[in-house]
């Protein structure tokens, strides 16, 4: 966009309504001399300065040359005298008085408008009028701060890089002017705009000016300038955004290494000045340490000439200095992680070696707490290294050959053992616990989390292919190691019940083993409510309805079911809060805020959690009652989402410990009950819910339309078309994408969606080819019947597969272990239950349709029912068989959990040693036994027993919920269809 | 690293590190957005390099309604600190001070007379923090808080109404030295 070249026309003007008629008429009839005289008289009489402005405005249009220039002179005098005109109407008149001649608006009226707005911050009317006036004359300099921000947003969105550079480099415009005027946010946003446009030299130029100015302020005779401006420069010079933008810009330049060197020297001088002015808070000091390390890393990278060696200069000592200096900060490891990713394995091993001992008794004169802090940091780095390997690579720490990356199991075991030793030493030292209570960083909790992550990994958790896991998600997991991770974390939770990473990790593990009650309890105590639900809700609630429908049943005295508040949160936010806030923003002239509000509303309405919350609620209630309690049409936020509506998982997984290497499976996936939320899964769920809506719909009995037959035809046509759409869309999502579906759904979910797709096809086929053909066709064709039967048989096959997978509990194992896997596999039961319900409702829907046709055309209805009903009964039988299988499973689980001795059994699994004959219990290579012995030293017997009792009780809760579902199902079966 | 900037609504998805702290209240989304929509310069955040919010301050500018004008409790045009929180992992780095300074700069730009806030009488750490930043107790609001963190049997807990004058208040008429001996009732407070 080029700056305007045509001077804007003067704005029209109206006098105040309090002005008398005579003056008003004279002014608007352009009787300028009369108007000027009348205004002078009014001014003399009332002493109201407004009339003085009217007089000058009127004179500016008179023939007399002196009168015509009077306005300009008065305005200039007011500017020089720092006069503030607080009457926006008077200011409009002064603008009018000089607008008929060439003028520099930004240096004249614009200055007065800026003063007025600052003097009357509460006067929104005046503010908006001044803004509009400045916009009219393209005076962005005197537009308010907020408008500069809007302008920058517009430039970023629509301006070309060259245009933006030209505009931001104008003499009276750009980042430095914003800074000097106190528009700090605009200063930083303009730097970001330059970065966005890759204007590296300009960024360096701006940063140099800021740094030079601050360095000059530290000299004995600093240059004379306003104190306020100096303060703005010094404060800007310590901001990370300026530093990092400059360093990044330097990296992009051809002479980057030289520029970085210059920047390095300059920033040191700046820091000296900031220290002298006492402006270096610890946070800036920490930023300074980081920027120095960043510069050192990149200078070393740039200086390296060998393609085989990333760093010819030894960079490790720099990293070590930062690590030791900030070891007690919990953010220390995450800071290091960014740099560790740049190092090769040898350098990381070198770094770990230098980071301190793993034996807590080795260092004299350092207290246990500090030793443990350093140990936890060292082990975090080791975990990162031990999970960053590639296949057939030798671990540079333990020298083991890694056959399959990215984990070095030898190191994971060693880290676990060290963490256990350190943890025990800390737990037994009362000083450590006392000190930890007053620190933000508790090394004991870190050691427990570290050890548990290693144990979960060693146990074999984390499936890459959920579709191929027929059995319990824990079947291929070493139960002893898995449970040891859980009891360790739970022990910490009971001791100090507040650590976000630990709590959320424990929630995930409990859900994975079917312990829903403690998972919900811990999640509830984490304080996750209201706005936090959006970013963290899915950590706990995803797939919960299929795992434990009992928890969705409304309890006596409760007016809401589980997750209702989550749904209401979204409804209120999207339907009410955003429109309200956009309105408020506009009313307050905060225009720059509006795009950001719209952006958040867009993000929120494209959040997978929005869809899955509704789906879980619907599914949870349906599991219990066997029928749809509400339809998708009653869910305004997702009622009309088309299949191409892009949804994203916006869960904030940074609340979980992200300590493993970049190639390693992230902790949120490692501990998930299936693939994380995705766009594809959300749409599969929505389409499935729509199918339930259609086949569960029952027309009110008192609905007696006048043209019943015609209406029925239209209804069936609509239903057929909907089902065809559902089938096509479901199949497109299931099979149409090149990406394998296993990345998005579990095996039981895949079966369920495929079955629903086939049922949708069946309904559309029956309606279209059997019931809807005109009466002349007499009866459905053989081909049509064959197609229908084929679809039924295909559906039956899928139901059979799903039932087989559900029933595929591992054989030949200990009865109690059998129970554990059964409880852990309730998700498969949930999806089978939903498939069985879908089949029943589809058959009921078709049965009702056949009944209707019998009332209008009995012979035809009877004929069609004669071949179709026996086929559809097979579906009902398959659903009944699935229900019976589930009922049997629930009975087995109930009986299993009613057995006595669960506490001893669980503790035996956790604390059994490697001499145990049972292969299912013993840890790999006896490691479980080693861990058990170490844990035995710090987890007291009563705590263990309490934990085991809680686990058993929570399993009983889940199974009891399923028993209720199963009992209700018996009632359903007794009802006539 | 930590950088400072104005709040944007998308930050609400990344403020778990602050709001999972039991001492930080989490409100409905509308509460935060109202502040953003009305007083964006008084809503500042500290952010790490992964986009996590490590601290934030929320404030507003206001004055008592006109019908309060005759009252001794009338509050002229001023800024109010509604919330200031720093994630446990980012404490003791001076983040709270910088955020407060940023809000104060916004209050100066809005030409207010002073900046005020309420703090529990028992929260000595916070009181010390604000005193170090130039705030002083202006008055004690009796039983302002419905609960008492130190004594569950008590009816409530007093609040200190603390203030810091801005440059506009050249004669320091909006602060007092003996604020701790001036007691008011919750209904006197706007």
Automatic annotation (TrEMBL), chain A:
One Pfam short name: NatB_MDM20
Protein name, entry field: Uncharacterized protein
Organism: Xylaria flabelliformis
Taxonomic placement: Eukaryota, Fungi, Dikarya, Ascomycota, Pezizomycotina
UniProtKB/TrEMBL annotation, chain B:
Domain N-acetyltransferase positions: 2-167
Protein name (record): N-acetyltransferase domain-containing protein
Entry GO CC: NatB complex
Record key words, sorted: Acyltransferase, Transferase
Gene3D superfamilies xref list: 3.40.630.30
Listed InterPro entries: Acyl_CoA_acyltransferase (IPR016181), GNAT_dom (IPR000182), NatB_acetyltransferase_subunit (IPR051646)
SUPFAM superfamilies in alphabetical order: Acyl-CoA N-acyltransferases (Nat) (SSF55729)
Database matches in Pfam families: Acetyltransf_1
GO MF, any single term: protein-N-terminal amino-acid acetyltransferase activity
Region called Disordered, residue ranges: 154-190
Record keyword Secreted present: no
């Amino acid at each position: 966009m080029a700056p305007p070249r045509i001077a804007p026309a003067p704005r029209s003007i109206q006098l105040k309504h309090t002005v008398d008629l005579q003056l008003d008429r004279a002014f608007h009839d352009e009787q300028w001399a009369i108007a000027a005289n009348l205004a002078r008289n009014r001014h003399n009489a009332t002493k109201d300065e407004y009339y003085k402005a009217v007089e000058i405005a009127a004179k500016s249009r008179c023939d007399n040359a002196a009168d015509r220039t009077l306005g300009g002179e008065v305005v200039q005098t007011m500017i020089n005298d720092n006069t503030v005109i607080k009457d926006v109407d008077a200011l409009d008149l002064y603008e009018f008085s000089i607008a008929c001649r060439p003028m520099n608006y930004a240096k004249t009226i614009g200055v007065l408008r800026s003063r007025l707005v600052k003097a009357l911050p509460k006067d929104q009317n005046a503010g908006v009028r001044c803004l509009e006036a400045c916009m009219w004359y393209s005076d962005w300099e005197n537009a308010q701060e907020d408008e500069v921000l809007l302008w920058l947003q517009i430039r970023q969105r629509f301006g070309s890089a060259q245009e933006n550079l030209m505009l931001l480099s104008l003499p009276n415009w750009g980042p430095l002017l914003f800074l000097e005027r106190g528009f700090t946010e605009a200063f930083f946003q303009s730097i970001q705009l330059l970065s966005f446009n890759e204007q590296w030299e300009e960024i360096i130029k701006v940063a140099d000016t800021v740094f030079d100015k601050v360095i000059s302020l530290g000299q004995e005779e600093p240059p004379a300038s306003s104190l306020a401006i100096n303060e703005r420069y010094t404060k800007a010079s310590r901001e990370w955004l300026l530093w990092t933008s400059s360093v990044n810009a330097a990296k992009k330049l051809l002479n980057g290494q030289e520029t970085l060197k210059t920047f390095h020297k300059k920033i040191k001088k700046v820091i000296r000045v900031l220290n002298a002015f006492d402006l270096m808070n610890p946070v800036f000091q920490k930023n300074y340490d980081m920027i120095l390390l960043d510069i050192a890393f990149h200078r070393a990278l740039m200086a390296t000439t060998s393609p085989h060696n990333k760093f010819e200069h030894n960079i490790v000592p720099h990293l070590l200095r930062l690590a030791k200096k900030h070891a007690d900060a919990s953010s220390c490891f995450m800071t290091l992680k960014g740099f560790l990713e740049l190092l090769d394995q040898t350098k990381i091993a070198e770094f770990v070696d230098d980071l301190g001992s793993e034996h807590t008794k080795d260092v004299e004169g350092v207290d246990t707490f500090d030793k443990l802090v350093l140990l936890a940091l060292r082990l975090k780095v080791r975990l990162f290294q031990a999970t960053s390997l590639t296949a057939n690579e030798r671990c540079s720490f333990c020298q083991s050959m890694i056959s399959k990356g990215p984990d070095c199991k030898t190191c994971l075991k060693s880290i676990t053992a060290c963490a256990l030793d350190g943890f025990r030493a800390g737990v037994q030292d009362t000083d450590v616990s006392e000190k930890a209570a007053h620190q933000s960083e508790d090394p004991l909790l870190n050691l427990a989390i570290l050890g548990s992550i290693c144990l979960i990994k060693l146990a074999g958790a984390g499936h890459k292919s959920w579709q191929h896991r027929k059995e319990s998600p824990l079947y291929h997991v070493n139960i002893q190691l898995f449970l040891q991770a859980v009891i360790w974390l739970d022990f910490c939770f009971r001791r100090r019940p507040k650590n976000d990473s630990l709590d959320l990790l424990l929630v995930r593990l409990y859900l994975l083993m079917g312990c829903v009650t403690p998972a919900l309890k811990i999640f509830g105590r984490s304080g996750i409510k209201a706005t936090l639900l959006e970013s963290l809700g899915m950590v706990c609630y995803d797939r919960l309805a299929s795992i434990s429908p009992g928890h969705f049943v409304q309890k006596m005295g409760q007016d809401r079911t589980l997750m209702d508040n989550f749904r209401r949160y979204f409804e209120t936010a999207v339907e009410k809060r955003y429109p309200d806030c956009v309105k408020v923003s506009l009313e307050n002239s905060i225009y720059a805020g509006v795009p950001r509000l719209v952006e958040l509303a867009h993000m929120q309405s494209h959040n997978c959690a929005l869809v899955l919350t509704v789906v879980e609620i619907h599914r949870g209630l349906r599991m219990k009652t066997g029928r749809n309690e509400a339809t998708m049409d009653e869910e305004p936020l997702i009622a009309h989402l088309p299949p191409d509506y892009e949804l994203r998982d916006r869960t904030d997984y940074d609340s979980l410990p992200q300590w493993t290497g970049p190639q390693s499976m992230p902790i949120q996936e490692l501990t998930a009950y299936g693939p994380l939320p995705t766009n594809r899964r959300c749409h599969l769920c929505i389409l499935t819910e729509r199918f339930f809506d259609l086949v569960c719909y029952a027309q009110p009995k008192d609905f007696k339309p006048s043209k019943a037959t015609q209406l029925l035809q239209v209804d069936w046509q609509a239903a057929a078309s909907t089902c065809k759409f559902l089938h096509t869309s479901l199949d497109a999502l299931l099979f149409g994408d090149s990406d394998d579906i296993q990345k998005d759904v579990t095996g039981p979910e895949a079966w369920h969606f495929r079955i629903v797709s086939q049922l949708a096809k069946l309904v559309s086929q029956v309606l279209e080819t059997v019931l809807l053909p005109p009466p002349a066709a007499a009866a459905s064709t053989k081909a049509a019947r064959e197609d229908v039967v084929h679809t039924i048989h295909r559906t039956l096959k899928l139901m059979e597969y799903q039932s087989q997978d559900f029933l595929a509990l591992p054989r030949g194992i200990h009865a109690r272990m059998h129970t554990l896997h059964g409880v852990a596999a309730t998700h498969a039961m949930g999806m089978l239950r939903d498939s069985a319900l879908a089949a029943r409702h589809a058959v009921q829907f078709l049965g009702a349709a056949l009944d209707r046709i019998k009332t209008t055309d009995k012979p035809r209805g009877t004929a069609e029912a004669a071949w179709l009903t026996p086929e559809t009964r097979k579906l009902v039988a398959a659903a009944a068989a699935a229900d019976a299988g589930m009922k049997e499973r629930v009975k087995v689980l109930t009986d299993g959990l009613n057995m006595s001795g669960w506490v001893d059994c669980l503790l035996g699994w956790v604390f059994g040693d490697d001499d145990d004959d049972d292969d299912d219990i013993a840890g790999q290579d006896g490691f479980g036994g080693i861990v058990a012995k170490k844990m035995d030293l710090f987890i007291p017997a009563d705590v263990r027993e309490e934990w085991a009792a809680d686990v058993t009780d929570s399993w009983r809760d889940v199974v009891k919920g399923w028993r209720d579902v199963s009992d209700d199902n018996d009632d359903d079966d007794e009802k006539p269809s | 690293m930590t950088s400072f900037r104005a709040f944007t609504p998308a930050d609400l998805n990344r403020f778990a590190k602050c709001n999972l702290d039991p001492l930080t209240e989490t409100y409905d989304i509308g509460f935060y957005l109202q502040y953003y929509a009305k007083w964006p310069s008084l809503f500042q955040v500290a952010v790490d390099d992964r986009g996590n919010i490590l601290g934030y301050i929320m404030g507003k500018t206001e004055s008592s309604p006109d019908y309060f004008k005759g009252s001794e409790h009338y509050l002229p045009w001023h800024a109010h600190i509604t919330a200031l929180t720093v994630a446990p992992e980012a404490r003791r780095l001076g983040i709270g001070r910088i955020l407060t300074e940023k809000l104060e700069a916004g209050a100066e730009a809005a030409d207010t007379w002073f900046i005020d806030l309420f703090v529990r009488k028992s929260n000595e750490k916070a009181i010390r923090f604000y005193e170090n930043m130039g705030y002083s107790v202006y008055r004690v609001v009796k039983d302002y808080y419905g609960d008492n963190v130190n004594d569950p049997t008590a009816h409530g807990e007093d609040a200190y109404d603390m203030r810091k004058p801005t440059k506009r208040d050249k004669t320091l008429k909006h602060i007092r030295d003996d604020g701790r001996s001036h007691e008011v009732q919750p209904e006197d407070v706007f």
